[in-house]
Write a structure and sequence with these properties.
There is one protein chain. With 341 residues, this protein is α/β, with parallel strands linked by helices. Strands 6, 7, 8, 9, 10, 11 and 13 form a seven-stranded mixed sheet that branches. The radius of gyration is 24 Å and the shape is elongated.
């Protein structure tokens, strides 16, 4: 049986209320006493009674804000979040969904500040990688509002946990396949969302991982400057037409972002054959392009499961006061080719 708060108080020579203040990081305790009590808590591996807290949480409503980007992944993540919520039907939980246009930094920052001021209990966020968002997340964290990032992550913030694909690793996997498909030579281009401007973390590291492996393992493959699309199908079509017209001998295309349908349709219309197109996720339109031999390979990341896990991690914190074992929980990388359908 684990130690109790009373026993910790006796070992530290303080009142039970002092231990409670240390456990919940409340003021009114000197630094020396706080350090002494915390050391005893850590040594004894004390864990608050999660069942007792859960019973208390059933008597109050939890309000959670969900801020997702308007990208291809949106419906799959949202579906996962809503499915996982059904498992907590004994609790009073209110979800508020907000959909934000890709790269609308100001709106996302304003919404984060709005929900902080309204003192929501937690936030699930697909962040845009910008300083304004880092600041807004950190302000939420300072107010003890946990922010779980899903699908896209953000550098330098104090977010509670990230759920999504290890983008750098996924980029390296794509590079290995591309290198082998092209027999180590040829010309490739990477199509991303926003380049270095407001690029979401997995998108950026997908390209970084890809370029690292191609440079080191396949030096005879020429990599053209990356192309940005801002998650806009019209821009994707325009850039694909330009690439296919200007680079007559393009051999490989890596798409790290959405709008793959638009890219695939342009590739089909061009009549170019033998171009290896690698992308991400297993959307129905991508699988159809794979059946038509337009998409050569795709790397899925389990978007529905990402949504489920983000909700589970947040509710574990809010209801049971449990922290994830890591600050980033990566989803599996699923390699899919035509023959696996």
């Amino acid at each position: 049986m684990g130690v109790t708060i009373k026993q910790i108080a006796e070992m530290a020579g303080v009142h039970r209320s002092t231990v409670d203040k240390v456990l919940h990081k409340r003021p009114g305790v000197s630094d020396d006493v706080r350090k002494k009590v915390q050391e005893i808590i850590d040594e004894c591996n004390y864990e608050a009674n999660p069942i007792g807290k859960a019973l208390k949480m059933q008597n109050r409503e939890l309000r959670i804000a969900v801020l997702l980007l308007k990208v291809d992944a949106l419906p799959y993540i949202r579906e996962g979040i809503e499915e996982k919520l059904k498992e907590y039907n004994s609790f009073q939980i209110e979800l508020e969904f907000q959909v934000i246009a890709y790269s609308d930094v100001q709106k996302q920052a304003d919404l984060l500040d709005k929900y902080r001021e309204e003192k929501v209990d937690g936030i699930i966020l697909s962040p845009i990688n910008a300083h304004e968002i880092v600041g807004a997340i950190d302000r939420c964290t300072e107010e003890r509002i946990p922010v779980v990032t899903v699908n896209s992550d953000i550098k330098g913030s104090k977010r509670f946990c990230f759920i999504g694909q290890d983008g750098y690793k996924a980029g390296k996997v794509a590079a290995r396949f591309m290198g082998e498909f092209l027999n180590g030579k040829g010309k490739t281009v990477v199509i991303t969302s926003d380049g270095d401007e407001h690029q979401s973390f997995p998108f950026g590291t997908r390209e970084g991982g890809f370029r690292t492996v191609i440079t080191e393992a396949y030096p005879k493959i020429q990599m053209l400057p990356s192309v940005t699309t801002k998650e806009d199908p019209a821009i994707m079509r325009r850039e694909m037409r330009r690439i296919l017209q200007e680079e007559k001998n393009i051999d490989g295309i890596l798409i790290t972002c959405g709008c793959v349908r638009a890219a695939g349709e342009e590739l089909k219309a061009s009549g170019c054959s033998g171009v290896r197109l690698i992308c991400y996720e297993d959307y129905p339109e991508i699988l159809e392009l794979m059946r038509e031999d337009v998409v050569t390979l795709t790397l899925g990341s389990g978007l529905n499961d990402q949504g489920k896990r983000s909700m589970e991690v947040l509710l574990d914190k809010l209801i049971y006061d449990r922290n994830p074992y890591r600050k980033h929980l990566y989803s599996e990388i699923h390699v899919m080719v035509k023959e696996s359908l």
